[in-house]
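Checklist before submission:
- one chain only
- standard amino acids only
- sequence pasted in full

Submission:
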Amino acid sequence: MKRHTELGEIEVFDSHMHFFSHNFFRMLAAQSPALKESGDPVSKIGEITGLQMPPEDPRELAKVWIDQLDRNEVARALLMASLPNDEESIAAAVSAFPERIFGGFFFNPLQANAVERAKHAFDALGLRMICLFPAMHGFSVGDNETVKAVAELVQERAGTAIFVHCGALSVGIRAKLGLPSKFDLRLSNPLEVHKLASEFPKVNFVIPHFGAGFWRETLMAAELCQNIFIDTSSSNRWVNYEAAELNIRRVFERTLAVVGPHRLLFGTDSSFFPRGWNSEIFGIQVDALARLGVISADASMIFGGNLSRLLAID
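Returned file contents:
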């Protein structure tokens, strides 16, 4: 499936989408004293947030996402379970559409039996991307021994990678539900990823959102470590933190100059319904790259080829 764009015919492979399963919302509700008392806490979340709640069967939610991908001419997507312990949900989606959906999972290395859980997610569930949120869970990517043990697992498994969220972090649905977000942004510097990536040069790492405010540090880490990829997802509102005026075209221009097109991964950060797949992000990024005169071959890598190579997909 290819999509016609200003950049030519490209096969789109979205590298960053969230699988907000029924179990995801159930686990969120369990964190709220008020929602725990509700007879139907998931439906209550829908009432509070205005979001469309997913079906209980994750395979049915997978079909909803496939319909979205088809409608927007997106060939494949990497969807991630968005709370630790929801690996089974995304695995069900992958098993339902193994040629279209590839799975990632939130991972907290401070949980009990963490390494065994990671091994199970890779080997038994067939997931490809382990997603670390150090600011959320309170650990150092560069110095945590469990993270290093997981890096060894990834090193032994072709087609797998480590995603590390860096920079600004906010979870809108937590705010809507009145849930605390005690994140420690001191732990979210891409230079921590550089430390780990330099120790494990055969492991591929992904830093999303151009570093989400740590753009300079992301470019430094990626230039020094050829195993660091950068994903382009979200609205990238972090540009407002920069001292000089900045826009997404300029971000792409400088990133391409430093890193090149071979390690950029297009993503949208799509997550909830009724919005569905965020076509606006796609349009903004296509326009920015077209204005820069990016050639079709490089665009094809950014919008899908690089992720296919990263995950060893034919």
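Reviewer check: The two ends are 14 Å apart (CA to CA).
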